[in-house]
Design brief:
The structure is a single chain. By secondary structure, the chain is an alpha+beta fold. The protein is about 45% helix and about 10% strand. A hairpin with a 2-residue loop joins strand 4 and strand 5. The structure holds protoporphyrin IX containing FE (HEM). Protoporphyrin IX containing FE binds next to helix 8 and helix 12.
C-alpha cells in the first residue's frame, strides 16, 4: 500500500496483518457502502471466541449465515421480564458489562496471533485472556438460558410467537422430514442472543447519554419541551403518530449520536478481495476500521464539534448552521446495524416521554441547589457514560398520571 499525502486513510502493518482506518465520511462511504460487497467480511475475533461469543451474529464472517439478518429483528424468545428482580435483567446486565469493557473488537494479542489463546492466562501480558475467561460464563449464560426457557415454553405449548419459536419450528419440521437445515441450533441461539445483547445494551447506553445531555444543556431541554407541548399538548403522553412531527426532539437524538458515537471505531470489517482506493493498494484480508469519532468531530463538517448543539442541523434561516445529520454511528454498508430503525424508534419514544413528563437537572448539593459535576466514562470498546446522579421533578400532574397509567397497564 502507498499512502497519498494528506490522505483520509491511515494504514499500517503489524506482524503480517494489514489495517486501515478511515477518517472521513467520503472514504467510509466509498469503500464500505459503494464497494460494500468487497468489505462485507469481519476479521476473526479470537478474544471474543474465548469469551464464548462465537455463534453471535455480529462477529460472524460474511457467508450463507447472513440469512439470519433478515429475521433477527423479530423479538427473540417470547419471554417476559416480570419486574425489576427478573433474572433476565441480571443476565443482560452481566453481558453488557462484559461487552462494554472487553476492548476494541479484534485488537487483542489473540486476535493477531490466535495461538496466543493457548498461553497460560497468568502471564502478565495476557490480561485480555484473563478477562475473556472471567466473563465467559456470563456470555454462555445469555446465549443458553433464555434459549432453554423458550424451548421449555414451546414444549409446554405455551410459547408466544417469537424468533426462536419460528426458527425452531422450521428446524424441527426439516429434521422430521429428513431435509437439510440451512441453519444450525447454534445459529438460532446466536442470532437470538444478538437481539438481546445488541439491542438492550446499546439502547440503554444511549438513554443514559440522552439524560446526561439534557441535564447538561438546560436550554436544549426547554426548547424540546416546548416542541412537545406544541405538538402533543400537556394532557397525554407522546404517541407513535407524534414522532415524525417532533423535528427538534429528533435533532436532540441526532446530536447525541454525533457527540458520542457508542462505537467510536465502529466494528471492523475485513476486505474480501484486493482493491485500489485513491492509488492505494488494499490487499484482500485487510482489517478496516471506520473512525466514526473523527468523522463526527471533523471541524470542517461540524462547527465547534464538541459543543452539544442540536440547532446546528437547522437551516441558516432558522438560526442553525445547515450541517449534515451524522452517519456512521450505526456502521456502514452490508454490515450496517440491522436494529437501527428499532433502536431509533425506541429512543425517540423514550426521549419524547421523558421530555413530556419530567424536568431533568443536576443533582442537588448539600445547599439544595443543582450542582454540576464531571461525569465518568468508560472507553474500553464502547464509549459509555458511567452511572451518575440526577434530580428529576415531574412536569405536569396530568402527564405523570398518564405515565403511571401506562406503567400500570404494562404490569398487569
Ligand atoms: C443506539 C442503538 C444502536 C447502535 C448505536 C448500534 C450500532 C451498531 C454498529 C456500529 C454496528 C456495526 C455495523 C458495521 O459493522 O458497519 C452494529 C451491528 C449490529 N447491530 Fe446494532 N446498534 C444499535 C442497536 C441495535 C439493536 C436494537 C439491534 C437488534 C435488535 C442491533 C443489532 C445489530 C446486529 C445484529 C448487528 C450486526 C450486523 C452484521 O454484522 O451484519 N443493534 N450496530
Amino acid at each position: 500500500m502507498r499512502p497519498t499525502k494528506g490522505s483520509d486513510v491511515l494504514f499500517f502493518h503489524t506482524f503480517g496483518t494489514k489495517w486501515i482506518v478511515l477518517h472521513s465520511f467520503s472514504s467510509a462511504t466509498e469503500l464500505l457502502e459503494r464497494r460494500g460487497s468487497l468489505y462485507a467480511d469481519r476479521p476473526r475475533f479470537v478474544m471474543f471466541e474465548e469469551m464464548g461469543w462465537a455463534p453471535t451474529l455480529t462477529w460472524l464472517r460474511w457467508g450463507p449465515r447472513r440469512f439470519s439478518v433478515a429475521i433477527v429483528l423479530k423479538i427473540a424468545y417470547g419471554l417476559d421480564v416480570d419486574g425489576p428482580q427478573s433474572p433476565w435483567i441480571k443476565l443482560a446486565e452481566d453481558s453488557s458489562e462484559a461487552v462494554g469493557k472487553s476492548g476494541a473488537p479484534a485488537s487483542s494479542i489473540m486476535d493477531r496471533f490466535p495461538a496466543a489463546r493457548y498461553l497460560p492466562s497468568w502471564l502478565p501480558f495476557m490480561e485480555r485472556l484473563r478477562y475473556a475467561r472471567t466473563w465467559r460464563p456470563a456470555i454462555e449464560a445469555i446465549t443458553r438460558l433464555p434459549f432453554d426457557a423458550a424451548i421449555k415454553l414451546m414444549n409446554a405449548e405455551k410459547a408466544e410467537e417469537s424468533f426462536v419459536q419460528s426458527r425452531m419450528k422450521i428446524w424441527f419440521e426439516n429434521s422430521r422430514q429428513g431435509c437439510p437445515n440451512r441453519f444450525s441450533l447454534e445459529d438460532i441461539k446466536g442470532a437470538a442472543a444478538t437481539i438481546l445483547i445488541a439491542g438492550n445494551d446499546t439502547t440503554a447506553a444511549t438513554v443514559m447519554l440522552l439524560v446526561l445531555y439534557l441535564m447538561q444543556n438546560q436550554e436544549v431541554q426547554r426548547k424540546a419541551q416546548e416542541e412537545i407541548e406544541r405538538i402533543v399538548g400537556k394532557h397525554r403522553l407522546p404517541s407513535w403518530n407524534d414522532i415524525p412531527k417532533l423535528r427538534y426532539t429528533n435533532l436532540v437524538l441526532q446530536e447525541t449520536y454525533r457527540i458520542n458515537p457508542l462505537s467510536p471505531l465502529g466494528i471492523p470489517h475485513a476486505s474480501i478481495a484486493d482493491d485500489v482506493y485513491n492509488g492505494m493498494f488494499i490487499p484482500k484480508g485487510t482489517i478496516v476500521y471506520p473512525n466514526v469519532w473523527a468523522m463526527m468531530h471533523d471541524p470542517k463538517v461540524y462547527s465547534d464539534p464538541f459543543r452539544f448543539w442540536p440547532d446546528r442541523y437547522l437551516p441558516k434561516e432558522e438560526g442553525g448552521n445547515g450541517e449534515p445529520l451524522p452517519i456512521g454511528h450505526f456502521g456502514f454498508g452490508r454490515r450496517i446495524c440491522i436494529g437501527k430503525y428499532l433502536a431509533e424508534n425506541s429512543l425517540l419514544i423514550i426521549l419524547a416521554t421523558m421530555l413530556a413528563t419530567m424536568n431533568i437537572d443536576w443533582p442537588l448539593g448539600p445547599d439544595g441547589q443543582p450542582t454540576p459535576f464531571e461525569p465518568e466514562w468508560s472507553f474500553r470498546g464502547q464509549a459509555i457514560v458511567l452511572p451518575f446522579g440526577i434530580s428529576i421533578t415531574s412536569r405536569s400532574e396530568k402527564a405523570m398520571a398518564a405515565l403511571n397509567e401506562e406503567i400500570d397497564a404494562l404490569q398487569t
